[in-house]
Design goal:
By secondary structure, the protein is of the alpha+beta class. 41% of the residues lie in helices and 11% in strands. It has nine helices and eight strands. The strands form three sheets. The chain has a three-stranded antiparallel sheet. A three-stranded antiparallel sheet has the order 2-5-4. Strands 7-8 form a two-stranded antiparallel sheet. A hairpin with a 2-residue loop joins strand 4 (228-232) and strand 5 (235-239). Helix 2 packs across helix 7 (291-313).
Amino acid sequence: MTIFLNTLNPTPFGLFDTDTDFQVEADGMVTFVKRKLGDDVLSVELTKKMIWACFEESLCEYGKIVNEYQAKSQLTNFLGISTGSLEGSEQKYSRESLEFFLRKAEPYSQAAGLGGSYNSVSGSIALVKNQQDYNIYETLKDGSGNLLFSSSLNSLGGKMKIMEVFHFSPHAAYRFFDASSAVNYLNNEFSFESFTPETVFYVLPVFEDILRGGQLDLSNRVRRSNYTYKIVGQNIRVFPTPTASDPKNLWMRVMFAPDPLNPDVADGSIYGTSNMSNIPFGNLQFSRINSIGRQWARQYCLALCKELLGLIRTKFTSVPIPGGDLTLNGSDLISHGREDKEKLVTSLREMLDSTTYEKLIEQEASVVDNLQKVLRSIPIPNGKAIFIG
């Protein structure tokens, strides 16, 4: 008697052929399918290899649907990791991380000058006496005298983004103390505060000095300083008009259009998992599938066999027999098989929909809310709770 283990190439892809549990189950599926399709009464025109092929397909379909929902729950944790082998990750409970959200927020921190994966570069414009307008793309150069716009740093050839222009009056620290506090300032500088009784000093947190310095700096720039600039298109206009006594260079810090696939910071995760197509999920191991999955695979295999048997029987509408013709039920088998497959897939998807990580959190939150409602109705004796244990 031919059994699965002694058959050469029993399944089309051989995905589960070496699994001992699958080998035993495959032989049982032959008996199961033929008896369910009435082989004891009327011969079922299906070979063992046909049934084994359907069984392999049913497990692939089950694994595909389960992996799809697992990927929905864990995709943010897998993004960027090595695609590696297509085996093993599908049945692991990965640790949650915030890498996806931090990466999404990175451009905003970079725009605020607080980080990012792309470097900014500084350059200067040589100011000319009595000239206020300068074309940034034609005059902004690095320390070696090369134009920044046409340098290798601008790999995409995009426009420059000005991050900061160093064109302002002296820093606010020089005006940190106004005229009324000049005596206190001098006493502090020369360490006279301990010997000057009319001087009063307060112990204040450092952040207050930082905030006050920022306020004074902004106040000086807006109210007192005539140092300013205006950018229109590729041109920058500086105020006041440069004179012989002005600095010879106007410094600026700029960034170029970032290349999303070639950041300035080396990042190997760019070549890692990027979407559902390369998430490192392989076929489920049959030996690790529980009874829920195995029963679903058996029913799906039976539905596939019904459809296959129907396709075979529709090749002959009727078979001549002594005294008449025998009409075959090929169309009915095809219809029933496809209906069964649809029902099985729908029920599996509905079950998995309710067990994604997001749904589980919602269910747990609902349980907590309902439990609190129940606990509110429990009377507390003498106004106090009593715990024993």
